[in-house]
Amino acid sequence: MVETISQKEEQILQIAMQVFVEKGWHGARMQEIADRAGVNKAMLHYYFRNKERLYAAVLEKLFLKFVNSIGDSFIPGQTFAETLRIFLDRFHDHLLNNAHLPLFIARELSEGGSRARQVMEKIIDENRMHTPYAIINELKLAGERGEIMHIEQPVQFLLTLIGSCVYFFLAKPIIEPMFPEIDFNSSEFIEQRKQMIFEQLYYGIKKRETP
Prior knowledge:
Blueprint: H1 5-27, H2 30-37, H3 41-48, H4 51-70, H5 80-97, H6 100-110, H7 114-125, H8 131-145, H9 154-175, H10 187-205
Helix pairs in contact: 1-2, 1-4, 1-6, 4-7, 5-10
């Protein structure tokens, strides 16, 4: 079977992501990426021109893959509780299936995050980043329905939601030896984690019944 350009680009992006995760922006070398991907350096530059563009392409792919994986959490007519549960399922499934993602983003942020900011600004300018605004809109609609309390700054909820999901995957290497009796990779633990986040967040904003 003849390999298409898109397949070769995908292969290069996957290899590049591995190298960037392992060595960071400054430590990664185009020659190593080319060697691991099984292409010569000239072909690597043909596809992506330079390391800056390759790194930006990896970041863009990761951001959009994440957005697309949870973008269908928002179904018209469902309650905010239902939306939140679906979002947590999709978010955790995405992180479980892309274990490199938190480490990659953490390494980028540890180096200042300027390249991630530029890529995010590009995605937003091209109107390809909808999920954060969809969550905020769902919060506003749920407040108007009387399902939850009015939230003065919905971004605060969004930050707490994302942080609650991501932190476990970042911290797992140092949490596991603290509690060796717990299987942190089991589906049972992940389901408990999702339930804990749901209860802490949803019941924190749920509209109280007046006596």
